[in-house]
Amino acid sequence: MLALQKLGERLTGLSATQLGRMPLSETMLAALAEAKRIKSLNALRRHYRRLGKLLQQEDLDAIHQVVDELDNKHQASVAKFHNLERWRDRLIEGDSEAFGAFLAEYQNADRQHLRQLIQAAKREQEKGGSPQAFRKLFKYLREVSGL
Fold first, then answer.
1. pLDDT in tens, 43-73
2. Are residues 33 and 91 in the same domain?
């Protein structure tokens, strides 16, 4: 029962579009909407118990599957973000192999524009100024990768 209450608590944190992907009854959707309006901690705790009881009547396997997909999607985007940060650092270090490898992986990247952004970020790093070019480079890397 406690696991169902925790699942109900987790579901209250999801957006309406995310909840729309789940096979939930109208009663359950109304209870989740009501939980978002409750401010009192004790009332919220009681409501989580109610959500746990309502979840007993739902298709738990399908709900768990959608929740897991949402969690994995978030983890995948974080991993892509960290990968781009590593690319940015390698490109600024001046490794020509890294430049070639990046262009091989992301073929839609503009070679000349990328080289200009890298040079500006290097100059900025040497001078110790504000990281404006550093940010522009990262923004371009995100744009090229589709993140």
1. 999 999 999 999 999 888 888 888 888 888 8
2. no
CATH number of the domain that residue 43 is part of:
1.10.60.30
Mind listing the pLDDT tens digit for each residue in 11-28?
Answer: 998 888 888 888 889 999
DSSP symbol at 21: T
Question: Any idea which residue has 């990968």 for tokens?
Answer: 83
The DSSP letter of residue 94 is T
Please state, in angstroms and rounded to a whole number, the distance separating the CA atoms of residues 110 and 72.
31
In this structure, is residue 67 part of a structural domain?
no
DSSP 31-58: HHHHHHH---HHHHHHHHHHHHHHHTTS
- pTM above threshold 0.70: no
Structurally, the chain folds into a number of domains equal to 2
Angstrom distance (rounded) from CA 32 to CA 138: 39
